[in-house]
Amino acid sequence: METIAKIRRRHLVNGESISAIARSLNLSRNTVKKYMNAADEPRYLRQYQHKPQLGPFLAILDKWLEHDQLLPKPRRRTSRRLFEGLQNEGYHGAYDSIQRHVKIWKVSRDPSKLTQAFVPLSFAPGDVGQFDWSYEYVVLGGVSHTIKLAHFRLAYSRQMFVIAYPRETQEMVLDAHVKAFSFFGGVPRQMIYDNLKTVVQTVFAGKSRRFNGRFMTLANHYLFEPVACTPASGWEKGQVENQVGNIREWLFTPTPHFDDFSGLNAWLAQRCGELSSRRHPQRAETIAAAMRDERPALNPVSVPFNSYVEQPLRVSSTCLITIDRNRYSVPAAWAGKVISVRLSAEYVRAVADGLEIACHVRVFGRDQVFCDPWHYLPILETKPGALRHGTPFVNWTLPLSVENVRQALLTEPKGDRAFADILLGARDAGLEALDIACQLALEYGKPSAAVILNELRRLVEPPRAPSLDVPENLRLFTEPLADCTRYDSLLAVNHV
Prior knowledge:
Layout: H1 2-13, H2 18-25, H3 29-36, H4 58-69, H5 79-88, H6 95-109, E1 128-140, E2 143-154, E3 160-165, H7 170-184, E4 190-193, E5 200-203, E6 209-211, H8 213-222, E7 225-228, H9 238-251, E8 257-258, H10 261-275, H11 287-294, E9 309-314, E10 320-323, E11 326-329, E12 338-343, E13 347-352, E14 355-361, E15 369-370, H12 386-389, H13 391-394, H14 400-410, H15 415-425, H16 431-444, H17 449-460, H18 486-495
Helix pairs in contact: 2-3, 5-6, 14-15, 14-16, 15-17, 16-17
């Protein structure tokens, strides 16, 4: 536009000729003439885009697109795969040309792919919350990981909450809701979701859904209504969809470094609080101020939900149950039996006859074994030799005095039986009492199982009952005096 104004001033004000202007500005005379009568900014509309590289291959590309259109969506080739296929046919152009042509081709077949119009939405305080997952990259303990990030968003205040997990399993979904509602200080009346399997069991026509049973237990506990979006209609929860991109830019660029998930999630919760100081997009206040207005409208949380999923498992002959290719021990009494296993985001709990019989911190590697030595002590009654090479006992970290006793006993004949008896005697007392008993036995000299067990019994022996109150009618009013001289008479008799 500056060039047009310059041409018009030089000709109409300064009186320069068209030829002189064209030579000085390195333009053609026809261009100068066209600009002489232009008062508005020129608009350039390309009538046809030349495709010198792609042109000879358009027929092949369109044929491939027509063929893929008949296939199920997961089997259709992406623009990148089509580009690689054309390269094998001799194409030397850019990938962008393929991508642009594929987009135009799809829009020509389905005009609904053009930009759609939407109605602006407004929400009442405490009315709606939205949920979604995303994949992010972090470095944990010096190793790069792909994590799953659970996103929550309150539609009125725009308050966000995110928490990271190694997977998207149902116990992770349940745990994320517990943490989010605790962070918000309440529960919205509705929660909107995609049709993910951990939430929706069956999708029927329209809005009808059959929700997952365990998820509905969560919804009934917190008294919110779950709502599933129409398939492929992400705009129905557009706030949290937009939040995914924002969080990736604000919190995961560059890649954050932490020691573990605990440190990462503590930082994410802190950053969610800090980001609430931003201005609300539709109100003349901050997100934190809008959240203060919305919190009283949320349903209060009285008791947190117990976020676990339960499944029956058979215990192996080695007293192990298998969870996600990792094995955890349970008490030997349950070997070969079916028990109930409660999986949460952090723990693996074994339950039998309504009682918790084992609890392990959950790990997410593979092919790892976690044995609690106390679970295997009953086996030592018949198999004391397992002390020498049994996995639970070889890697058992014992107090120093107990380890010294162990090393001393295992060098003697039947030492494994003696140490097994010591451990069996300490099942109820615990390692702390056993440690003291072993220290006392080592002070006496060479330790033995009998001495240690005797010391252990003395340590854990319950206090003696107090002396009985003697009834008044049985109490002595005149107590006899001690007379030791009477023993002298006995000596005299014996002497005779």
